[in-house]
Amino acid sequence: MAAKQNQLIVLAVTFIVLFFIYSWHLNVIPPALLNDEASIGYNAVLLAKNLHDQNGRFLPTYILTLNGSDWKEPITTYFTALIFKVASASTFNLRLGSIIFTLTSAGLFFMILYQIGLNFGLAWLGTVLYLLNPALYINSRLGLENVSLLPLINLWLYLLILALKNRKLKYFSLSGLILGLSFYSYKGMQIFIWPLIFVNLILIIKFSRNWYKPCLRFLSATFLPLSFIPLWRFLYAGAVLDFSSASKWQGLFPAAFKYLSVFNPALIFVTSDKMIIHSTHLHGMLLLSFLPLLILGLSSEMKKSPVIKLTIWLILIFLPLPLAFTDSVNRTSRLLVFIPFFSILIIFGFQKLNSLSRFLAVSYLGIILINFGVFLNYYHTNYPLLLRDKLPSDNLAAGMQALSNLSRKYNFKPVIDVNLFKSYQPQLEFYQEIYFPKNNSFISTLQPVNLKGALFLTTTGNNKNIKAVITILPAYQGNPQLFIVKSRL
Hints:
The protein has helices at about 1-25, 35-50, 75-85, 90-115, 120-130, 135-140, 150-165, 170-180, 190-205, 210-225, 230-235, 245, 250-260, 265-270, 290-300, 305-320, 340-355, 360-380, 385, 395-410, 420-425, 425-435, and strands spanning about 65, 70, 415, 445, 455-460, 465-470, 480-485. By secondary structure, it is of the alpha/beta class. Helix 4 (about 90-115) packs antiparallel against helix 5 (about 120-130), helix 5 (about 120-130) crosses helix 17 and helix 20 (about 395-410) packs parallel to helix 22.
C-alpha cells in the first residue's frame, strides 16, 4: 500500500513539474495570438456567455470563423469555452486548454505502458520522455486544435489493449466510441480515422477467438458519432472533408514521396514542420537523441506485448496512406497522432539499452536531458525573435487593457482605429470580449481629432491636433508601437 502511495506521489510531483515547464511564460511565448487561436478564443468567449457563436448559431457543432474562410472543430472550442466559464477569458487560459490535453494524454500514455507490462519505473520514464518531444511542447503552447486528438487516441489505444486482454465486449464498444469521437478533435483526424478503424479490425480478428461479435460491437460504437456526417455536410457545408473530391492523386511516384516523407529522419529529428510557428527549424518533431532509441525499439522483441508490437507496425504501414492523396508534406504539426506510437518504441528501445548496460542507459538519459534543455533554452530565448515577423503585433492585449483602464479612469469613450481593427481583427475581437464585454460598437472610421471625449487606440502618435496619453511599446523590434490618444481640440 505504501509503495502505491509513493508511486502516486512521484507521478503527482512529475506532472506538477512538467506543467510548470509547459506553461512557463505561456501568455507571452509565442508573443502574439495567431488568427486561428484568436478566432477559437473569440467564439469560446461567446459560447461561454450566451451559447451562440459569432454567426449567431446556437451551440453549433462546427463554427465558421475568419470571415467565412475556416471551420473550427467542436472539441477544442467547447473545452476552451468551459475553461472560460470556470475561470476567465485570457491569452493564458486560451492556451491552457492545449496543455491540459497534452498532460491528460501523458497520463493515459502512462496507463498504456503499465497495461502492456512495463513496470512502474519504465512506465514513468516513458511518460516523461513522451513529454520531452519538441513537437508536443511547441504545439501545446498554441490555442489550436493540433493536440486535442492525443487524449482520445491514447484512450482508444488503452481501451483496445484492455479489450484484447480481457475479451470483454464493453471495452470493444468503448474503444470504438472514443475513436469515433476523435473525428471531432482535429481536422486531420477526418482522414486518419479510417486507417485506424482498419488497424483496429485487424487486431480484433488476430487476437480475438470469436471475432465476429467484437468487430460488430466496435464498428457499431465507432460509427455512432460518424453517422452524423451527412447531417454536418448539410448544415455546415465545407466543415467535413469530402475525401473523394478533395483527394489529389498525382501519380504513383508523387504519392510515394508524400507517403515516405512521414518517415524522413531529417524531418522527424531535425527540421520538423515547414511552418516556423510549429517548429524552431533546428529541433525536430522528436528529440535527435531519441533516434538511436527508436531504432532499438523497432528491433525489440516485445515478447510480453505482441498486441502493441503488431499495432505499431500496422500504424506505421497504414496510417500515412491518406497523406498520399493530399498536399500535406513536411507538416509534422499534422502528424502528432504518430507520437504515442513513436514514444512506445522509444521506451522499449531504452529498455533494450538498459538490458545491455545500466551505466550506458543512465548516461544516455543525461544526453536526452541536455538535448531537451538546449531546445527549451532556444525556445524561450531565440525562437520568439524568429516569430516576430510571422505573428500579429505582440502589444495588442496590452493596448486593449490600457484603453480599458484609462477609459474607465477618465470616463472617456474607448475607440479603436478602424485600420488597426482591419489589420488585427481576430485578435481585437477576442480582446474586445475580455476588456469591453458590454461595448459592441466602438470601432471608428473617424480620426481622433474629430472624436471629443474619447480615447483612441491607434498606430499614430502625437501631432498638432492629437495628444498621446500613453505609448504601448512592442516586446520585439519590428512590431508597430500603439498609442492611446485624445483630441487637443
